[in-house]
Every structure is written in C-alpha cells, then in structure tokens.
Amino acid sequence: GFDNWNVLIIVFTEMRDKLRKWREDNHRNSEQIVDVGEELINEHASKLGDDIWIIYEQVMIAALDCSRDDLAWTCLQELKRQFPGSQRVKRLAGMRLEALEKYEDASKQYDSILQDDPTNTAARKRKISILKAQGKSAEAIRELNEYLEQFVGDQEAWHELSELYINEHDYGKAAFCLEELMMTNPHNHLYCEQYAEVKYTQGGLENLELSRKYFAQALKLNNRNMRALFGLYMSASHIAACPKVNATVKKANVRYAAWATNQINRAYQVSHAMCCVLLKQ
Amino acid sequence: MAPELLLDSNIRLWVVLPIVFITFLVGVIRHYVSILLQSDKKLTLEQVSDSQVLIRSRILRENGKYIPKQSFLMRKFYFNNQEDGFLKNTKRKVVPPSPMTDPSMLTDMMKGNVTNVLPMILIGGWINWTFSGFVTTKVPFPLTLRFKPMLQQGIELLSLDASWVSSASWYFLNVFGLRSMYSLILGQDNGADQSRIMQEQMSGAAMAMPADTNKAFKAEWEALELTDHQWALEGVEEELMSRELDLDGMFSKELPTGIF
C-alpha cells in the first residue's frame, strides 16, 4: 500500500543524493557508484528527469574502473543518443577505448576533439594519460611539460607532473612542481609535506634545513599530520648528527628533535587511551 | 499657477497600464530572443594561455613568500629578466576589434541593433500613432517650455504646462524605468536591459582585449619588479613549538584516512 510506496521514494531520493555527494566531492569509490547507479538507472530512470544524463556520465566512468564494459556501453549509447556530436561524450567514448586498452583508437578520438577545439584541455590530458598507461614516462613527461607551457594554471597537471618526476627520481624538477602547488594552495598541508619529503630525499645540509622547515609548516597547518611530525624529527636529528654543522645550529636542532619526540609520545598516549576505551566497549 | 487638469480615468485604464504591460512584455521577449541569437565567444589558445600566465605572475607576487627565496628569485628572473623575460619581451599582435576587420564583431553589432534599437523605434512609433492626441500623465517636477515639442507630440496646445506628457514619453519612461524590474525577474545579466547595452556600446570601443594583453603584461612586470621575498617560514619552528600540538580527535572513528 502507501507504506511500500513511501519507502521506495525515500530509498530513491537517498540514492540520488548519495550519487550527487560523491560527484561533488570527487570521490572515486567506483564499486559503490556502480552499485547505486546501476540500480537507479534500471529501476528509477523515469523519476530522475534531467539528472539522468550526468548520472550516466558518473556511472560510466565508475563502470570503466570496475571493468563493467556492458554497463559503460549502455551509458555511452544513451548519452550519444541524447547529445550527438558533443565533445564531452566523445571524451567518454575515448575513455572507454582506453579502458579496453585500444590506445591507438582512443588517441584518434582525442585528436578529432582537438581538431574541432584546440583549447580542449580534457582531450590533451587524456592523451598524456595514455602515454602514462603505456609506460612511456619520458614521453608523458615531455607532453605534460608542453601542456603546462600553454596552461600554466592547471593544478591537477602540476601535481601529475610532480608524481611522474618523483617516479623518475628527478627530485629537483618535482620540487619545482610542488612549489607551484604550494603557491596556489598555501594552506594545504599535504603539499608542504610532500615538498619536505622531496627535499629530504635530495639530501645535503641546505635541503635538510628546507625539509625541516616545510615539515614544521605542514604541522603548523595541520597539527595532526603524523607523517610531518616524524619528518620533523628525522630531519632535525639528521642535521644535528651532521659533522659539518656549528654548535648553535646543532643545539637548535637537538632541541627541535626533542620537542618532536615529546609530541610523538603524546600521540602514542592518546592512541593508547583510545584503544583502551575501544576495548572496553 | 497653472490650473490642475483632471484626466479621464479611462486614460489610466486603457493607456497608462497597457503601455506598461507592452513595454514589459517586449523587454522579456527581447531577453529570450537575445539568448537564442547569442553566438559562442570562442577564445583563442593564446588568450587562454596569456590569462593564465598573468594569474601565475600575480600568484607569485602574492604567495611567493611560501616558497624558498631561491625559487622565488628564479621565477622572478624568468618573468622580468632584461633580455628574455617573458613579461618583458612577449608582444602580442594588437588588433583592435573594429567592425571592418573582425566579421564576428560586425554580426554581433547587427544582432545587438536588431534586438534592441529596432523594436524600441517601432513600438515607440506605433504607440505614438495609436495613443495620440491626448495627454497621458504628468511628471512630478516642472519642466521648461523647450521640452514641449519633445514630450507633447501631437498635442497643439500653447498654454499647456510642459509637465503634461504624451503617451510616447510615458513609453520611453517605462523603457528605462523597468530596468530594475527586469533584474528582479530575469536575473542580473539579462538581455532586456536597454541602458546597460547602450552603456556597453559606448565603452566597448575603449575596452579592446588585445591591447589589454600588452598593457597587462607591462603592469605585471612593474608590479613584480617591486615585489620582494619575505619568507613566511623564517620562524616557523619557534611558532610551532610555542605550544603543544592539538591532537584532539586524531584517533576518532569518523576521521577520514587523511593523516598519513
């Protein structure tokens, strides 16, 4: 009767809102998206109205992550039918080809988008992802550099480039990329921490000092960043143990390391207390 | 003291109100027509690229203090260097978008005229022809006699106060007066906003984009020259260690796995 109907409506709105939240927060929980999205599309398509198109896109990308080509194909067909000639849909078709490892065809797809619209950044970035998937790191790095020369403000690209450089052990250039990110996101503690780690890996007294400073900054931005706390301890003790440093610098770094140790102990105590509480429950 | 005229109340019902409605509806129709006729403004790759470069230079000025001094100087050198600094040496082709050289500008101008000026003239003329021969309303402030031929089209009375106006003037009053109504109903950026469009047409010639780029580069160059590096991390350890770490809520169940 009415009760069943009401429950269905509630379930439907919950599912749709969950999908929207995942979309807005850019979550990549693909299996969940596929579960919820597939049911929504199959059972409640009529109730979705115009939302259905963006849900098709979201579910299709999640389906590609889960190797559900059947579902991805269905979504793609619906989108192609509704938006023929759309570049956004063409990009999705290219992504499906990438998922099937048909890299040549995918590349041709993106080239056709770029012919119509040379400023289309999505297609260029997909082409670079293809190079990365094929393991051609040097080429990917080169293409990404060219891309960034034109689109110097693309933060996603800077981050991707820093990761590629780290994989190639080119820490100097990775540091440059992270500097760009720190300037555009001065309050992001993760970029400071990554920069500090790169500096620490580069080694040498000057880089260790920088690393210590940026671990401290990351900790200042987020008191609970444990990795930065350990990094602070290690960089400070490393400097203190260095034979070249003078007495004042050594004394200061010993003090920093001691403070860090103190805080680490506090953190362990907090976690110990938490464990006791949890075990008692 | 001019004697007060008493107007037939039919005038109010059949002239004043219809003119208001007509003006308003025409404005709304103009808005939707302008949306239909809107052409996509396609930016060139160079324009997109340049705008991002300017943003990067500005970020360098504002947030350069968060990166080490050497890195800041390296970037400042890249932008401002005498021989091959980007901001100093890049000159973009300055093509002022005059209607002759840029065909898309021409069609835009034509569309603008068709949707805005033409209806206004047509409807103004029609109203003048339909609702002629009588005064419609009185403006609340006194006017000089020189306004009479303009505002009292079709009424040949020498002794009539210039404050009494014909329906054509009421129409034009509406066109400008309903602007705020349009913003209320159609949202800020609506195509029915006559005066805004005319303002744009007048200042449009002055705001040519390409010339802007060169000037923008020069302005950035000057601003960057003046910027010095004040490292924000100078005393970060002391600031950090001035108090204990706030470890509240670190191991709670709800916390996302963002610590490591």
TrEMBL record, chain A:
The keyword Membrane applies. It holds the Pfam family TPR_EMC2. TPR repeats lie at residues 155-188. Its main location: endoplasmic reticulum. Residues 90-199 form the EMC2 TPR-like domain. Keywords: Endoplasmic reticulum, Membrane, Repeat, TPR repeat. The keyword Transcription does not apply. It is a peripheral membrane protein. It comes from the Eukaryota. Gene3D superfamilies: Tetratricopeptide repeat domain. PROSITE patterns: TPR. One of its GO terms (cellular component) is EMC complex. Coiled coil: none annotated. It is found in: Endoplasmic reticulum membrane. Component of the ER membrane protein complex (EMC). Part of the endoplasmic reticulum membrane protein complex (EMC) that enables the energy-independent insertion into endoplasmic reticulum membranes of newly synthesized membrane proteins. Belongs to the EMC2 family. This is ER membrane protein complex subunit 2. The gene is EMC2.
Automatic annotation (TrEMBL), chain B:
It is found in: Endoplasmic reticulum membrane. It holds the Pfam family EMC3_TMCO1. It is a multi-pass membrane protein. InterPro entries: EMC3, EMC3/TMCO1. The chain crosses the membrane at residues 12-33, 114-135. The keyword Transmembrane applies. GO terms for biological process: protein folding in endoplasmic reticulum. Keywords: Endoplasmic reticulum, Membrane, Transmembrane, Transmembrane helix. Belongs to the EMC3 family. This is ER membrane protein complex subunit 3. It comes from Salmo trutta. The gene is LOC115207880.
